[in-house]
Task: structure prediction
Amino acid sequence: MKLIIATIKPFKLEEVRQALSDVGVTGMMVTEIKGYGAQSGHTEIYRGAEYAVNFVPKIRLDIVAQDADVDPILDTIQATAKTGKIGDGKIFVTNVEQAVRVRTGETGTDAV
Result:
């Protein structure tokens, strides 16, 4: 099993969620986060005053998937979240050693 962590722009969430559902993703965790990467934040003007926004709002998606499903999920996120502008996000994949469903006690892939 793998844990896919993706950061995307907030306005892309529903489009990405629908596309992932279409490729068979049945569950994910979504978190509102703030961060910065290459764009290092930006400046905005509010009521005539300019100020720096050092952390940009993003959405974090956490998806646990079978190894065979990882590539289609990555392709879907990348194709759907892409705007072609700086700050489109990142995707990380890491191993999952164990999973447990709290309600039933199921473990491993049965818990996902």
